[in-house]
């Protein structure tokens, strides 16, 4: 609302018939309001550096410290406009006659009042000149407003031509330097006085076809209908106000300008640009308008540093993505080469480039802002990047089926878009367009989608991205659609695209799935080629990251004996240093499931060496694995049980776990797994002989140590639980030949040492004597 408010008061004080007393009254009141602390600032930012309304200040004045500049409120421009008047004779002649021209004998040489064709010019600060047009139109002088608008456009045309002549002489030097200084100290798009919107509205209002049926049956507003109205006084009669409106909108939108400071000012630039584009889209392009469109697009491309579409732009220049998207869509049916040239030129976003000089700029804050950090404070950067992405997506859609254009657009995307999420979105869009539900896929666009996906993989490989798993899965899907060669390629170059875990658990697993084989309709040699690549990948990943990839590698290599043996050996080699007991137990269970009990036992034994189960960890997550490992050893035979018990004794200090293992080992005879070539005696093992004797002693010792540890900090509410614990301990003691004696001595020792805990000892005596 600040922009409209500012322009409104400028209109009020620029009333052509406003009396001096009225203007003085307004000036006094506006200054009073502007001095209030609560008065909003013009650009919503404390540090405004927009030029004075009456003239663009020299660059040297702009270099002064911004803190010394007066604050600019929403009334500042209206206050400045009070100094403007309408008494200039040249201005009066412009607005009072359609046929005001210079005499033919005065058209030779330079003139500040007329162009070479003799048409009048109005050399004023452009937003100020447009404010006059707005004031005339707002106060009922629509014909006068039209005449002044035409004079302003003739002035802009002449300036554009002179700028192009200047650039022709400087082109070689500028292209060699690769940087430029912008001459526009303020942009016309997003300006508080909305000069381009004002001219466009003034010109198109004259061309609007009056229609009473402005609302359709649905209650929505129908777009306006325009027709060509010849420009009064035009020497050749070939111009209409509608072509002038289009031309001035394109000039303003294509102006190279520095991104203003502050969130409000930057957001206003984006919104104003979208508003102008929406107005342009209401125009139904005929031959005359297309001719104007082509001419202005070519001029913008050739205008060098004066145009946002020039060959070299300033690092902090406002991007042209939204504007270029309109130009591309409008030009495409009429001149595809020009449409692509404009859109590809506009794809750049130099503020995100990591290198390159900034050039000179007539704006001290912007010159300073790029020193301390890589990026200036562009609050709307996310919006600008999304507009860049939309422009690229529009080009990709239009280029479907054209290999050369698709390749050119792909290169522009890879060069200019720096967000992995946006490139991924483009890849998904391209994939969706390339694979319609009711038609065969477009292989050229599919390949573009795949290349964009590969770039995303490379960009996000070493950085965190919460969508990474989704991206990896999508890439495999895309490669599957492209075909066998694409899948082989990503499998062979996995290390540049995926982490070892992703490569084995997602990529190779998906590629080797039954659905993928059916989708590709592969014959036996092709299936073998794919399987061979997947196995090679699996072994490489297992070597690089055995902790996370060993199990996946074993699974992928199941059907190839040599590869499976190699994967198993990688696990054995890594077990002593780089793998946890949890990972080893998991692989050991897998080996048992696959029918390799002896290998499973070896891995379980290695896992036991990494484990340490304290006396009080009776709910530890590894307990089930320990019990399983002991059951496996017991089922294999006495030798395997004898081998694992010392490891259990060394690693497990929890009495209840040890007693559980001991009980299970004494219930059945060892060697029931039925390993071929082994004899099974079928006898139960004795606890007074090896290897169970060592386990029994360790269990009894663990009960004794745990009992003393518990009694150190026991509370009365835990007495009952403690008595039950001693009952379990007695069951273990009694497994020894002299267990009852040992347990009696143990109880006596407790009574002696902890005689101070009278209530507890009384409970002990009641239960155990």
From TrEMBL:
Highest taxon, organism lineage: Eukaryota
GO CC, alphabetical: Cul2-RING ubiquitin ligase complex
Segments forming domain ZSWIM4-8 C-terminal: 583-760
A Pfam family it matches: ZSWIM4-8_C
Keywords per UniProt: Metal-binding, Zinc, Zinc-finger
UniProt-recorded Gene Ontology molecular function terms: zinc ion binding
Protein name from the UniProt record: Zinc finger, SWIM-type containing 5
Source species taxonomy: Eukaryota, Metazoa, Chordata, Craniata, Vertebrata
């Amino acid at each position: 609302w600040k922009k409209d408010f500012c322009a409104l008061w400028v209109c009020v004080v620029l009333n052509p018939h406003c009396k001096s007393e009225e203007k003085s009254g307004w000036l006094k009141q506006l200054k009073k309001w502007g001095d209030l602390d609560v008065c909003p600032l013009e650009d919503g930012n404390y540090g405004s550096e927009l030029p004075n309304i009456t003239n663009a200040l020299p660059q040297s004045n702009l270099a002064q410290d911004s803190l010394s500049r007066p604050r600019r409120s929403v009334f500042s421009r209206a206050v400045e406009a009070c100094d403007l008047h309408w008494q200039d004779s040249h201005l009066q002649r412009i607005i009072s006659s359609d046929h005001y021209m210079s005499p033919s004998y005065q058209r030779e040489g330079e003139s500040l009042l007329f162009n070479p064709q003799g048409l009048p010019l109005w050399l004023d600060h452009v937003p100020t000149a447009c404010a006059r047009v707005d004031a005339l139109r707002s106060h009922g002088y629509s014909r006068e407003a039209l005449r002044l608008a035409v004079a302003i456009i003739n002035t802009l045309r002449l300036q554009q031509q002179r700028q192009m002549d200047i650039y022709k002489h400087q082109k070689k030097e500028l292209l060699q330097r690769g940087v430029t200084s912008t001459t526009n100290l303020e942009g016309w798009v997003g300006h508080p006085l909305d000069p381009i919107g004002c001219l466009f509205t003034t010109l198109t209002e004259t061309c609007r076809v009056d229609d009473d049926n402005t609302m359709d049956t649905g209650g929505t507003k129908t777009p306006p209908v325009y027709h060509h109205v010849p420009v009064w006084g035009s020497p050749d009669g070939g111009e209409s106000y509608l072509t002038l409106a289009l031309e001035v909108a394109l000039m303003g939108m294509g102006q190279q300008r520095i991104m203003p400071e502050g969130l409000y000012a930057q957001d206003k630039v984006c919104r104003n640009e979208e508003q102008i584009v929406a107005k342009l889209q209401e125009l139904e392009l005929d031959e005359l308008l297309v001719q104007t469109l082509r001419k202005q697009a070519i001029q913008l491309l050739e205008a060098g540093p004066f145009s946002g579409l020039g060959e070299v732009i300033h690092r902090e220049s406002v991007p042209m993505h939204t504007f270029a998207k309109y130009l591309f869509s409008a030009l495409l049916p009429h001149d595809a080469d020009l449409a692509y040239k404009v859109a590809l030129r506009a794809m750049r976003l130099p503020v995100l480039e990591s290198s390159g000089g900034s050039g000179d700029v007539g704006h001290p804050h912007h010159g300073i802002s790029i020193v301390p950090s890589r990026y200036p404070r562009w609050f709307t950067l996310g919006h600008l990047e999304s507009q860049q992405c939309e422009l690229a997506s529009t080009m990709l859609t239009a280029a479907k089926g054209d290999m050369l254009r698709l390749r050119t657009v792909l290169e522009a995307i890879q060069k200019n878009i720096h967000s992995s999420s946006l490139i991924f979105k483009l890849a998904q869009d391209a994939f969706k367009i390339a694979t319609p539900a009711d038609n065969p896929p477009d292989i050229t666009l599919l390949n573009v989608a795949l290349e964009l996906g590969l770039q995303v993989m490379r960009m996000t490989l070493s950085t965190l991205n919460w969508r990474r798993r989704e991206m990896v899965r999508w890439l495999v899907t895309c490669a599957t659609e492209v075909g066998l060669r694409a899948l082989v390629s990503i499998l062979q170059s996995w290390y540049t695209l995926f982490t070892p875990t992703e490569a084995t658990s997602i990529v190779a697993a998906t590629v080797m799935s039954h659905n993928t084989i059916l989708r590709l309709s592969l014959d036996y040699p092709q299936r073998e080629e794919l399987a061979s690549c997947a196995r090679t990948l699996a072994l490489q990943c297992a070597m690089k990251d055995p902790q996370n990839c060993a199990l996946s590698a074993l699974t992928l290599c199941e059907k190839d004996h040599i590869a499976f043996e190699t994967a198993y050996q990688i696990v054995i080699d890594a077990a002593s240093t780089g793998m946890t007991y949890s990972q080893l137990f998991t692989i050991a269970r897998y080996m048992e499931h696959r029918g390799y009990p002896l290998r499973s036992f070896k891995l379980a034994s290695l896992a036991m060496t990494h484990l340490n189960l304290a006396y009080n960890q009776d709910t530890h997550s590894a307990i089930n694995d320990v019990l399983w490992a002991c059951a496996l050893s017991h089922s294999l035979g006495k030798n395997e049980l004898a081998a694992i018990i010392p490891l259990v004794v060394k690693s497990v200090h929890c009495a209840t776990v040890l007693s559980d293992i001991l009980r299970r080992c004494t219930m059945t005879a060892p060697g029931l797994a039925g390993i071929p070539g082994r004899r099974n005696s079928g006898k139960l093992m004795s606890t007074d002989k090896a290897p169970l004797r060592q386990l029994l002693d360790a269990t009894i010792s663990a009960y004794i140590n745990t009992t003393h540890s518990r009694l150190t900090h026991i509370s009365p509410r835990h007495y009952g639980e403690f008595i039950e614990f001693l009952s379990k301990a007695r069951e273990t003691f009694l497994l020894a030949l002299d267990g009852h004696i040992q347990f009696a001595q143990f109880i006596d020792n407790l009574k002696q040492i902890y005689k101070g805990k009278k209530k507890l000892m009384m409970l002990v005596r009641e239960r155990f004597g």
